[in-house]
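tool=predict chain=A
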Amino acid sequence: MLVWGVALFALVAAAGVLGPRIGVADPLLLVMAGLLIGVLPMVPDVVVQPDLVLEVLLPPLLYAAAVSLPPMGLRREFTAISGLSVALVVGTALVLGLVFAWLIPGVGFAWGAALGAIIEPHRRRSDSDREEGRRPAARNRHLGG
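tool=predict ok
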């Protein structure tokens, strides 16, 4: 297990060095490497809990991306970013509504969409912040520029 962990850290470092040299974004290289590694028969199956990704792995990545984002770029693209974020949340709830209405007998689309809005991950994250007594937007105040 330690060997695989060291190999993955070396892969991330290699992508960080190789990406700018060949003009490809580091995350794209990592996705391609992950796809290739995933089909190798010698690689053991890895099961990752979704809560671990949402609460431990994703926040540092988002923070690093937010710190490196130029404030003028954020202001310039604010309409597109805010529109897509609202569309993603609403779209996810509606798609989940269709899935629940199809999978659970007696549940209509309206109830399925309501259930989809309740269990949607963005909503769950802000609810857990409230349970801990934090304001949901408190950790994002520094992004204003």
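The two ends are 41 Å apart (CA to CA). The first helix runs from residue 2 to 22.
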